[in-house]
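Newbie here. two chains, one complex. Structure please?
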Amino acid sequence: MSLGDRADAAAGSVTRADRHESFLVYARFRFLKIAMAAMAAAVLLYAADKPDGGRFGGTWAGWTLGIVAALLIVWLTWFGYRKRSYRKPEANLVAWLSAHVYLGLALLVIATLHTGFYFGWNIHTLAYVLMCLVIASGAFGVFCYVRYPRRMTENRRELTLRQMLGRIASFDEELHKAALGVADQPAAVIRDAIEKTVVGGSLRQQLLGHYPGCATAVALTYFGRADIAASVAQAAEIRKIRMLLEEKALLLARARRDISFKAMLEVWLYIHVPLTFALLAALLAHIVAVLYLW
Amino acid sequence: MQVEITILTVRGSATMRRSLRVSAGRLRFGRGTDNEVPLADIRVPLAAAVMSQRIGGLSIEQSGELPLRVNGGSAHSANVGPGDEIDIGPYRIVLSEPAEGLDAALSVELVRPMGDALDRILRHSRIGLEHTHLSRRRASWALFLAILVLCLAAPIVAYLAGQRVTAPTAVPAAGGASVVFRGSWNPGQLSNAHRYFAHQCSTCHRAPFRAVEDAACLTCHSGVGAHIPAGATGLAAIGAKLAGERCADCHVEHRGLRSLVIGEGTLCLTCHRALAQTAPAAAIRDVGGFPKGHPQFRASVVADAAGPRLARVEIGPKPVPADHPGLVFSHQAHLRPDGFPVLHIKPLACAQCHAPNGRGFLPITFKGQCQSCHRLRFAIGLPWKEVPHGDDRAVAGALEGFYAALVVKHGIPVAAAAPQIERRLPHSRPAAPLPSSARDWVAQQTRSALAVVFKSKEGCFYCHLPDPKLGAFRVAPVQLSTRFLPMALFDHVAHRAIACEDCHAARQSRSSADLLIPGKERCTACHGAENAAFKAQSTCISCHIFHLPRLGPMRQTAAPRIRQRKGGS
């Protein structure tokens, strides 16, 4: 199940969301407890080992922490592959996600202790920085998971995005009919509102919901002018068009907001995933470098 | 004009035809319902075009803003006839041969419908970030490969292609661009002493996937002293353990500007904490730390100056350690607060005798420190003449030679006119008659001078001790120590801010047997443990060194070979 689908599922039904246990509280914070224990163990190990010459990644405690951190990185990355498997039961996936989040946060402590707080302009620190960025982007993802599904539900109000777009389409059809009798200039404005209004689009449009020069907004402004109607009969037509445009604009805003929320639920992955691969490469380089020049 | 209009409507794969006949002066096309041919699509102007009859045919003229397309070409107006195709917006009008009695026949078809409204919206809209220019897969691969190339492959190539310098004794060549790649693997800055060859990884890392070997270190550091004396009693096991360690096990590089020498005492205490159990035969006292756990200092004092033989004695009140340098000396007598006014000598300072030299002082010598005050005169009448110092056996010969030379040069001194009547004090001996021969005179003068020089508690024995075993005109051997704590590295220069007397109770010392070396408690007044906050942090190597040059080299190694590769040196 993709993230977007999960978000849809979470946002689509409040009752379903209530019935399901959030990955954050899964099994009464089982993985939070495990992560806390892992962090405590790492801190204890770090404190217990007082090597001659000071702590760094090359002492036995440093090696232990480094091996654990490396294995954890590989295991956490495995989640990205595993969550694409639809054959596994969903409850298991929630457990995996819960573990992914909490153990990912624990990794920050374990790997930081592994460094012994030695940093420099080298690939070793690059691997660490990439790991921090991956964790930070993941934490932002968790924040989005917590924040946006509820907002999506509130915004959708029992409508799915496709239903919203269907309604917008029916407004377009009504507008088409209503505009057949109007003069060419207003008809052209309406034609643009029908043909050139977009939902979604570029990254900026999807994320921020900004659609400068939106044809529907332009049409609404055009038909909002008081002097548009030349006769009483036309005034009724114009009123109808204006009403249709207003309703379309409202629905359009909701749809675009929905897309914006959905984009927020996805965009962090566009940082998280590529940086994870960068981290894997840097981790490999780090390990090879350490062993190559022993 | 009479026109037959066929309206074609496509429904799926079927085409429906509806024909109607229109009779009008001209044929108007447009969205408006008042047109003869209404084109009900918002893309068409209310009045789009007008078709009219002309002599010999038909003509069509654009009446709205929408340009006409006649047979594919844009036109404002055109003469048309059967077979021509006219596009008005999404509609296509095809003229055909009119039936008998008709002026024109044409078909009207909506060839570009607006389509389903929802499909149109979905078609125009890109929903989901996967429809933007972003690509997780592309970015992932790009970053993965870029980092593998730049951070893994390039440094390996730079390492393999770089100069195989295994002797940092040579001035290294300039690094070049590959330094950046090699530097990217550097896990931490090198110690300052090694930085000048920092860009030559192979100087120390001589083969991939192999730990740095001692041979790399010994290229420069072959003279580093051992820690355990060869053949030391009871230390074979520890010696074997040390022999199994690599230099780099203790001296960890790439840790920045901190020294490669490990300062933490725990390294030393690993062995020294329990040597009494692990190596009882070595008779080395256990050390548990500093200041707590460190035994009282043991000083090396002279037990027998003739040997000379030194003895290690613990500093403390019971028993009071005694030095036996073979001299009679009182610091107190020399450090009189008012000096020596009769001799016009101001109060003495420590440094007047103890001349600093490195961490310690120059050795005390008679010529350097004593002779300026303690002259070795042997005759009142000859205040400029002194006996030689340092070789007691040569004194008699020197005196005899002096007097012999005197008699050769000036003859036997003539005695003053002897009184006719010798008046002597009661019980005094008669004056010895002057010798008549030069030989006798020299012998007499020499005996007289030797009696002065070796007079008890005067002359030589003012400072030296007699040794009955050696004879009358000999002094006991002297052995003065310059370091009483040879196992430590006390640095007097580092402590120059502290007055000498704060540590050395010289003003109270009346005997050369007094050991003026302070005990541990004097050090711990200022020095604390290695994590002390209010005392100078002190660790084992603050006072001791591991590699002792006097014990010979730590590692025996073959002469380093300079490996050469093609293209490098």
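Moderator note: The radius of gyration of chain B is 58 Å. Chain B touches chain A through 67 residues (CB under 8 Å). Thread marked as resolved.
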